[in-house]
Design brief:
Elements lengths: L2 E11 L2 E6 L10 E2 L2 E3 L6 H13 L9 E9 L4 E9 L14 E5 L16 H5 L2
Parallel strand pairs: 1-6
Antiparallel strand pairs: 1-2, 1-4, 2-3, 2-7, 5-6
Length: about 130
């Protein structure tokens, strides 16, 4: 089974977390996910996330602003996903969907209203505990 490493982040402001909707045409289209993406060869998870936050949302974050929150380990039919989820409360800029994706500040107590990839569901208690 192929192991795929993805870095993701919960951007948290007050009691809200930023979710991004996967665009039509991609795998798991329409589901709400944490911003992030595949870790490229030679990248640390933090460096990958800083790059993805710029590419996907147009914001700047530093490695020191990323703290470990939880991780997902989930078998999809064609690969196994290992995804550290970081917490970030401090960044520069205003997030906007730079790749045409919808984004939303979801109330941490209303995450059930956002259909998410199956890998993400075990991560939600860590968020609610914040
Ligand atoms: N960024 C992100 N990816 C997630 C989450 N949950 C989850 O299962 N994934 C999966 O992790 C994989 C990598 O995400 P990615 O953001 O780099 O993938 P991508 O947009 O290039 O999609 P692709 O796999 O269609 O090429 C995808 O298969 C995605 O479905 C999540 O909360 N955030
Ligand atoms: Mg991505």
């Amino acid at each position: 089974m192929k192991l795929v490493l993805v870095a993701a982040v919960a951007l948290v402001k007050d009691r809200r977390v930023l979710l991004a909707q996967r665009p039509a045409g991609k795998s798991l289209a329409g589901l709400w996910e944490f911003p992030g993406g595949k870790i490229e060869p030679g990248e640390s998870p933090e460096v990958a996330l800083i790059r993805e936050l710029d590419e996907e949302l147009g914001i700047t974050a530093s490695a020191q602003s990323l703290s470990p929150l939880a991780f997902a380990s989930h078998s999809y039919p064609d690969f196994h996903l290992l995804m550290p989820l970081y917490l970030c409360r401090d960044w520069q800029g205003t997030p906007h969907g730079r790749e045409g994706q919808a984004i939303e500040w979801a109330d941490i107590n209303s995450l059930d209203d956002y259909p998410m990839p199956p890998a993400d569901l075990p991560l939600l208690p860590s968020l609610r505990a914040l």
